[in-house]
Amino acid sequence: xxxxxxxxxxxxxxxxxxxxxxxxxxxxxxxxxxxxxxxxxxxxxxxxxxxxxxxxxxxxxxxxxxxxxxxxxxxxxxxxxxxxxxxxxxxxxxxxxxxxxxxxxxxxxxxxxxxxxxxxxxxxxxxxxxxxxxxxxxxxxxxxxxxxxxxxxxxxxxxxxxxxxxxxxxxxxxxxxxxxxxxxxxxxxxxxxxxxxxxxxxxxxxxxxxxxxxxxxxxxxxxxxxxxxxxxxxxxxxxxxxxxxxxxxxxxxxxxxxxxxxxxxxxxxxxxxxxxxxxxxxxxxxxxxxxxxxxxxxxxxxxxxxxxxxxxxxxxxxxxxxxxxxxxxxxxxxxxxxxxxxxxxxxxxxxxxxxxxxxxxxxxxxxxxxxxxxxxxxxxxxxxxxxxxxxxxxxxxxxxxxxxxxxxxxxxxxxxxxxxxxxxxxxxxxxxxxxxxxxxxxxxxxxxxxxxxxxxxxxxxxxxxxxxxxxxxxxxxxxxxxxxxxxxxxxxxxxxxxxxxxxxxxxxxxxxxxxxxxxxxxxxxxxxxxxxxxxxxxxxxxxxxxxxxxxxxxxxxxxxxxxxxxxxxxxxxxxxxxxxxxxxxxxxxxxxxxxxxxxxxxxxxxxxxxxxxxxxxxxxxxxxxxxxxxxxxxxxxxxxxxxxxxxxxxxxxxxxxxxxxxxxxxxxxxxxxxxxxxxxxxxxxxxxxxxxxxxxxxxxxxx
Length: 703
Known about the structure:
Elements: E1 14-16, E2 33-40, E3 54-55, E4 80-91, E5 94-102, E6 106-108, E7 134-139, H1 147-150, E8 162-168, E9 175-184, E10 203-211, E11 223-230, E12 247-257, E13 260-265, E14 270-271, H2 283-288, E15 304-310, H3 341-344, H4 347-359, H5 370-374, E16 381-391, E17 409-418, E18 433-434, E19 440-441, E20 454-455, H6 459-469, E21 499-501, E22 505-508, E23 511-518, E24 522-532, E25 535-541, E26 548-554, E27 557-566, E28 573-578, E29 583-591, E30 594-602, E31 628-634, E32 638-646, E33 651-660, E34 663-669, E35 682-690, E36 693-701
Helix pairs in contact: 4-6
């Protein structure tokens, strides 16, 4: 398989807004963890000091250097030290084996920025001055005192601290812990060279734990913050420590609104007695609340821990390779075949996508996950644009905080990234292009990382997978611009642009079946989805000369995906529905990726007349060759109309339109239309209307 196109720089992009909705902020970090909880262990011990850990020498904490230069300055105030985790750990969509430990109470998976990290607000904000990909048990302006610092201080002296780390346990249940012991916390003013923190008892103890994921297909483990005691310096009688204004949480690398980053604030949590208690009551606050610490411990007690429960995720490379069920991962069904696309792409991938369409449960949209692989025609990328409005949940008309909780709710717009170029690089590189108005158009500057881009797969992607399975294309992804979507057609034919719902036939009370046609021909991939104002109980397929088709349905949503040569005059499917409505509305129709509106089928029940006979009798003979006779039983004399329709709902013949006498009346039809032209064989519907009655039946012409 050729993968080189994934790394080509895209030279064109058209932005198309496909939805505008007020909803929570979106970024990849939000899809990594369930929510924030405070847990109480059964011991109950929330903080257990490390024993046998590897201490980081104070002289190994280095001030970040300018880009591309090695660090050279020791910094016990704001410095970093890179250490090994001991096992692969996924964070924000990437797998790491090492982290940088910062004196200021956090870890980062990314190269430290050159600007000092003394401001704990860095957890919330985005910009070149703020660290990204952060795990912060207690981010503040801290300082590491060494034993050498205390020489000559006398009896009233500082307490030396230590920052250490340790990996414990055996695979796949290892735990990596970083411990800040007796760290001088929350300095209010910068220290001058040689100066020590003013509060000799202003120390704190805390840890962060990274848990190895036991799932063999995922590297994304839990994160935990543990808190010991503050103060406790035996060499001083002072009793003051500052515990306010630190920040606690995790942070990604995206700019999601204004100057804010994508973060999850750990100080908005539900205090839980066990790990299985209900979820956090307001996840919006976790994402946009800027609460800082006040009292110690941030977890509300030394026997409690703040815990992020990881959502085990599968991820692998190559956008649009068709592996929507992720079966190519090591240890899974097709893992032994590696990157052999002809083995790992199967009909299961198409069915996974179809199920997500009809259940409206979107595939995992994060890069390198299910929808990323299912987006085989590369039209499913999107991002969330900040609306600049904070909405009140209690009263959406108010641009304010929620009056019940005081928590803000941020509005966003979902905006599609439509690439229309032969290069579909999985990259944000671009050049200026002309939009439909002739104006320069570029990618929004806030889309600064692929972590802000999400992916979707739909029934059209499923049809391209089936097209690949049928041997009609050589590989996935397939560049939609390089293949005519409807294939070769005749000179007197038009390519299909929509479906047509034919006339419904009553099967039993409140149960109907209707055919689905195309309004033209379709040679190649075919896909559509729709809603009905009833319940779909079945979708059957007309094979149409060996075409490959799959369908799915759930409640009132149906979808079809296939590959082949589809004709205009033969149904592609028959849909069975139950409804008590007088008309069947087929809405939200999406045909080969394009929204096409809605259609209506008027339904009728066969009614009984007062003389205990059926109002409209079955024609005789049926099927017929030359002619057939239709009988109607009229209870009340009046104006009636007897009409014949084809299965698409088109009127072909008016058999009678006038006054009918009460009693039985009969009418003969010879299989011609109103112009006297012979009609083709097939199914037709005859319908009687008038005097507040409506009834219909199906007949077959078979010359």
